[in-house]
Design brief:
98 residues; alpha/beta; 4-stranded parallel β-sheet; 4 helices
Length: 98
């Protein structure tokens, strides 16, 4: 089963790199990481360099960004998270095993 992790972001350059590293640390190697982004900082560049698929979107709110990202995801299992390390990514295996 393929896993997708979807995030919405706006100006998260300080945390996005660490966040993607954490996702990769606890996910299968073929995990799709999608970032729906409305940033004016380096967030999309950093995310792309870390291997995320970045979808640029005009600011429409967090919920709309996640909704769009969910429609773009190709995984059999889709997890959403924030970009600021709010949620522990070490729980990814638990969610996948459910």
């Amino acid at each position: 089963m393929k896993l997708s992790v979807v995030m919405a972001s706006m100006n998260e350059a300080k945390s996005i790199g660490v966040m993607i590293d954490e996702i990769k640390k606890y996910s299968p190697s073929d995990t799709e990481i999608i970032l729906v982004d409305s940033s004016k900082d380096d967030t999309p560049r950093i995310a792309q360099e870390k291997g995320a698929r970045v979808i640029e979107q005009k600011p429409q709110g967090h919920g709309m960004a996640l909704k769009y990202g969910l429609h773009q995801a190709n995984g059999d299992i889709i997890i959403t998270t924030d970009c600021d390390l709010t949620y522990p990514m070490d729980r990814i295996p638990d969610f996948v095993n459910l």
